[in-house]
Request: fold
Amino acid sequence: MASVSTLTTRGGSPPDSIEAHPSLESAGTPPQAPRRRRKPERITKLLFIVPAALYIFAFFAFPVIKNITMSLQEYTTATFFTGEAPWVGFANYVTVTSSSLFGPAFLNTALFTAGSLLGQFVIGIALAVFFRRRFPLNGFLRSLMLLPWLLPVIVSSATWRSILDQDSGILNQFLTSIGVIQSPIGWLSDPNVALLSVILVNIWVGIPFNVALLYGGLQDIPEELYEAGALDGATGWKAFWHITWPNLRPVVSVVLVLGVVYTLKVLDVILGLTNGGPANATQTLAVRSYQESFVNFEFGVGSAWSNVLILVSLVFAVLYLRSNRRAVDE
Amino acid sequence: MDKKPRLPILAGLAIIPLALAGCSSESGTPGAGGSGNTLTIVDYYVNEPDQKFVLEALNTCAAELSVKINRTGVPSKDLMQKVLQMSSSKTLPDVLMLDNPNLQDIASTGGLAPLDQFGISTDGFAPGIIEAATYKDKVYGLAPTVNTLGLFVNKTLLDAAGLTPPTTWDELKTTAAALTEGDRYGLAFSANATHEGAWQFLPLLWTNGGSEDKIDSPEAAEALQLQVDLVNAGSASKSVVNWSQVDVKDQFMAGKAAMMINGPWQIPALDADPNLVWTTVQIPVNRAGQTSIAPLGGEVWTVPQTGNKTKQALAAKFIECITDDDNQLALATARYTIPTRTALADEYVASLPVMSTFTDQVATARSRTGLLGTGWPKTATQIHTGLQLALTGKATADEAFAKALAG
Reply:
């Protein structure tokens, strides 16, 4: 802000501000010879790029590069004190891919992401369409919908852990009392069910994000389209398929791609509920990366796991960019 | 016309916040560079009432040595990350508290100073804790007090059933079965997918003659079979694969478990309920004649390599002070932990009889890193993986550890 106002006052009364900012003035002295004017201009352009470039380097490029180099080193607790991390080539990647958890973690990540997205999206769009109607307390209920988003995940996963407890959890007690199940289900203690439970909780966490974005998208669809459609007999499901869905497609693709990227890296929900257990039933790429790095202190192996994860995310990012370009071409 | 040359300045100004952000990261981190006689201290006692008791001990020693202290509390789950971060930025504190199984890991980095160079005597301490604090024949830390595991029994339920506390695994199974009723289980323990699960398995493993460097042994399988039998018989919940030790304590307090394996640090919580009458015994042995061996828990205080020799010597004096007899007894009594100087055991038990079981247990307790050193975290992961495989029926007790070892 301060620099902008300097610029405007400068234009109005040059002598004052020259005295007020002698150092600035000397740095920006107008060029003497006209033929040298082009150079400062190019520097100007470059300097404009510098802040953004520095930012991107410090917060995007550096971590990624560091993560890649780390995965090629034997990076342990000692490295932090001595700074020594011997290069080991692809040994960490061999450790990762030959781990008996590589296949299961990959599969679990895929199931977790697909299941979470499907659930979040279907419920999200249903609720978004529902909230388009006018009814009393609409706004209030819609703001309540944001609750799962506002709660810290550590808090909500602790709550879910007690809800899903096999013996005293309220879910099993409820299902038993209405006669849906005969014996309690080990939501978090049965390896065959645990992944499903973790997905269900993650769906709950993700619904507000989907509703908020999809509801916003629905608001942008002009009311006239529905009125015109209704005249031609398109109401209810027909209106949804032929008016809502096509108009919502750009928003849908954003929601889905962001959803994939957010869900692939989910760690807190799983750590809070099962810690990757029982019997490794909820191990995902993100959990493996975390546990190798911060439980076993094998930072090299941990970063190799996370690079696998980054690679998967990258595939989806490329798909997103391609689909976007096609949309622009159309 | 002179507007354009201005722009570089604007662009330059825009970088300033970035540069400032780069400088400011130093503040708030405890460093060795504090003033003359101020010692920086990092520990993980951030919860009351522990924090209060530890601060009292720290202040006592600060007064005794007439030094100022600048103490930072870091939540236990973040401590190792914080320590690694501090060691790479050369901002380790003058006095650093570490959980004892992490000591060898940090000592192996060269980040800690051996205590013998400051002329500190390690005589009279329980051998288990010295073993935990030793890396390559040098002692790097001392603990004022330690803890371990035992079997807590709900006295009311036990008496009502006309039983006595179990001393063998067979008795443990029959007693647990007898005390199981309705929605109450006979026994609760933690076998979750963290190091807590592994820590709770160690007493069974060691008591049965097993060793953490060979977990695919028959002794280990036998110990695991006990847990499997208890769960399969319905004497312990299938949820043990999810329970932390806090959950186990909650089950016990809620009357949903008649016995539990847990540590003395839970006693203040248990005492909060006057209707709960309980007693403790050592963890049962497989066959009569075996000695119950439990793992040693607790925190050790160390002197990091900060490069400031005078401060390090002062820090060593400080550690000598918090591990002296008076502070050991004060901390042990307040926190329900056991003094590490074995000579204090009788005096301590006389003043706090409820701690007698645990005090006896500490005399034979082993450290988790004594045998494996920096290899312990990996083995702990393999142990809890094995537990989970067997307790969920994914593998038999005989094959579970071999599977876990295969990675």
